Structures are given as C-alpha cells and as structure tokens.
From TrEMBL:
<keyword id="KW-0961">Cell wall biogenesis/degradation</keyword>
<keyword id="KW-0378">Hydrolase</keyword>
<feature type="transmembrane region" description="Helical">
    <location>
        <begin position="92"/>
        <end position="112"/>
    </location>
</feature>
<comment type="function">
    <text>Catalyzes the dephosphorylation of undecaprenyl diphosphate (UPP). Confers resistance to bacitracin.</text>
</comment>
<feature type="transmembrane region" description="Helical">
    <location>
        <begin position="48"/>
        <end position="66"/>
    </location>
</feature>
<keyword id="KW-0812">Transmembrane</keyword>
<keyword id="KW-0046">Antibiotic resistance</keyword>
<feature type="transmembrane region" description="Helical">
    <location>
        <begin position="252"/>
        <end position="269"/>
    </location>
</feature>
<keyword id="KW-0573">Peptidoglycan synthesis</keyword>
<comment type="similarity">
    <text>Belongs to the UppP family.</text>
</comment>
<keyword id="KW-0472">Membrane</keyword>
<protein>
    <recommendedName>
        <fullName>Undecaprenyl-diphosphatase</fullName>
        <ecNumber>3.6.1.27</ecNumber>
    </recommendedName>
</protein>
<feature type="transmembrane region" description="Helical">
    <location>
        <begin position="222"/>
        <end position="240"/>
    </location>
</feature>
<keyword id="KW-0133">Cell shape</keyword>
<feature type="transmembrane region" description="Helical">
    <location>
        <begin position="124"/>
        <end position="142"/>
    </location>
</feature>
<keyword id="KW-1133">Transmembrane helix</keyword>
<dbReference type="InterPro" id="IPR003824">
    <property type="entry name" value="UppP"/>
</dbReference>
Length: 270
C-alpha cells in the first residue's frame, strides 16, 4: 500500500511539475492551469515548497536559454559602472530598466499575497483567460520597431505594472508583459527578451526568500519534489524554445484561440 501511495504521490508531482513548467513560458498562465488541474482531479500539494521548486526549474531553463545575453549584460554593466565605457551604456540601461520593472510586482505581491490566495479559484481563472485572449488578439499583428537600446524608463514602468496584473490567477505573466511591451512598440525579439529577463529577478528573489522555509518544511516530500523540479526545468526549456519560434513567425493568435476556448470551458463546467 505504501509503495502504491508513493507511486501516486510521485505521479502527482510529475504531472503538476510538467503543467507548471510547460505553461510558464507561454502566454496561457501557469498558475491558472494549476488551479484548473487541481480542481478537476482534486489534487492538492500543501505548502509553498513545491511551487518554489518548480518555479526554480523554470528559472534555470530561462537562464540557460538566455545565458549569453545574461553574461553580456553583466559584463557590460560592470564595464560601464567601473570604466564608464560609453559602448556599454546600452546594456547597463537595459539592466537598470529590468530592476525598475521588477519593483511593482515585488511590492504588490508582498502586500496582496493573502488577497491573491482568496481569489485563486476556477471561476476567476475562466474570466482572466478570456481577458488574456482579448489582450493577445489585440497584439497578434503588431510589429514594433523599438530595440533594446530604445527602451525608456516609461516603458519599464508600464511593463512592470503589467507584470503586477499577472499576480491575478489566470493572467499570464509572460502574456501580460509581452502585450504591454508590444503595445509600447517593441520588436517581438526585444519584447520577448525583456519579458523573460524580467522573470529572472522575480523568481530568483522569491526562491531566495522562501529557501529557508523549504529547508524547514518537515512535511515536504523531497524526492518527488526534486523530480518535479527536473520535469519543470525540461518542460520549460522546450516550451520556451518552441514559443520563441512561434513569436518569430507571429502566430500569437493561436494562443488567443486557446485562452478563449479554455476560459469558456472553465466557466461552463468548473
């Protein structure tokens, strides 16, 4: 009986890890899909340890994919601060704007943490998926001109506020930031890079703040948790690679179709 219980526990962690990992990089809301899945199959994992681990899996995938950009930005930002090299200023400003864009979600996430939990239910997700559908449909044909060096403080603040809206379950973080960035006139490649670079400090900060809680969580199953971390990492890696190709081809409308169908089904049946 214990072996069977352990098997189903492991399977639960694998499935939830895959759902989180695959849906995190694409604009359909990972948090919303976890809420839907948990409601349909009556699956629950208590505590924050699981969510922190699978988000760290997604974070690792994003860092690996954007590793060359991260190294360049770090190196050039240091060169600008220390040596005042003018050619490194663009990368320094890109990092500075990422920091600015991170602040709203960090502040509001801390202040509204309990209230967000109160609205984490399928009916909320159904409505917010429809909102995501409308937003994605609005930008489906946009082709901006702004490149990395054209981003300004106002752009960073607006994209940061958009990320804050994604604290609402069912509002995709990547979707909200991409929509805001593209409405501001950013090229798809720039919008995508800024959006996922923005995920790094938010996820890393949450992971660092919660790491002590994970270590002292006596009820957390570590082996299934580590497996879920690995599954989330692999799923996020391939999902982001896939999504980058979709962005390059300008096929965001298909995600709008999906969010519309999913939202209607959730409102009708959950």
């Amino acid at each position: 009986m214990d072996a069977l219980t352990n098997f189903f526990t492991l399977l639960k962690y694998i499935v939830l890890g895959f759902i989180q990992g695959f849906t995190e990089p694409i604009p359909i809301s990972s948090s919303g899909h976890l809420i839907i899945f948990r409601d349909i199959f009556h699956v629950e994992i208590h505590g924050l340890s699981f969510e922190v681990l699978v988000h760290l899996g997604s974070l690792l995938a994003i860092i690996i994919i954007y590793r060359k950009d991260i190294i360049r930005l770090a190196k050039n930002s240091g060169s600008f601060l220390i040596k005042r090299e003018e050619k490194a200023k663009q990368d320094f400003l890109f990092v500075f704007y990422l920091v600015i864009a991170t602040l709203p979600a960090g502040i509001f996430g801390f202040l509204l943490e309990d209230k967000i939990g109160d609205i984490s239910r399928p009916s909320t997700v159904g409505i917010t998926l429809l909102i995501t559908c409308i937003a994605l449909w609005t930008i489906r044909n946009l082709r901006g001109k702004k490149m990395d060096g054209d981003i300004r403080l106002k752009d960073a603040i607006i994209v940061g506020l958009a990320q804050t809206v994604a604290l609402i379950p069912g509002i995709s973080r990547s979707g909200a930031t991409l929509v805001a960035a593209m409405l501001l006139g950013m090229k798809q490649e720039t919008a995508l890079r800024f959006s996922f670079m923005l995920y790094i400090p938010v996820s890393l900060g949450a992971g660092i703040l919660s790491f002590s809680d994970i270590l002292h969580d006596k009820n957390f199953d570590w082996i299934p948790g580590i497996v879920a971390f690995i599954v989330a990492f692999i799923a996020s890696y391939f999902a982001l690679k896939w999504f980058m190709g979709i962005m390059a081809r300008g096929n965001l409308k298909y995600f709008a179709y999906y969010c519309f169908a999913a939202g209607i089904l959730v409102l009708l049946f959950l």
